[in-house]
Amino acid sequence: MKQSLFIVLVLVAGILLVSPLSALAADAEGKTTVETPKEKGDTPQVKDQKEKQDTKGLESQGQKLGTPMSMPLYQPPLRGAPGGRVGGGTRGIGEELITLFALAPNHVALTTQEQPTLYWFLSSQSKHPIEVTLIIEEATQPLLEKRLPLPVQPGIHAIRLKDFNLHLSKTTQYRWFVALVPNADQRSKDILAGGMIERIELPEALRVKLAQADQLTTPYIYAESGIWYDAIMAISELIDANPNDMNLRKQRAALLEQVGLSQVAQYEMKQSGAVR
To answer: pTM of this prediction?
Structure first.
């Protein structure tokens, strides 16, 4: 009996001794887990460092692409009625189909430049003469009437007024045209495209914004300010300087699409490789 009681007491003592040791081990293991940085989570310093790394990654991506990721948005000026664009479209000359457009919106579009560049589009190489004309609205004699040398290649072309020593006056509306002339004796058969342009004073707020911007954001600023000709000129000059940057062509295509020049926009998207 005494021997049995002794055995029971030994077992109870063993259990009481093992229980605290197990608790201590579990507690130690729990503390180790809590203090591990992986389980605990990032500290504010680590999070800040990661955010900086992510930002640098985005900046590097932007630098690699060479252009902002979004597309420019043209906000037409709140003035006047539509009707600035003339002609444009696809017409047949014999068995040949020609598409001709002036890169201008369907309203009197603005510039802040004294000698802006005007842009137009031709779908295929032309063996027929092409003339460019600039005239003050309601005037009888043109300020410019120039025949371009042949052949004219397909694509987007520029009319740089500085090449002709022409200067636009402020608050004066001008019409400009590009005409493909299949028959010089029958000018009624001309394929004609054109637009309207007016030079305005550069607003001070816009001047400040442009002074703080880089070349890549300048087309965006002009577009959102409703200065069409300066926006299309800025993005086109970037394309001329960076012909392999396909994102720039996508940006120009976005602007053209917004003013109803879908055929030219589609051409630009093909040039960028986005459409095959």
So the answer is: 0.74
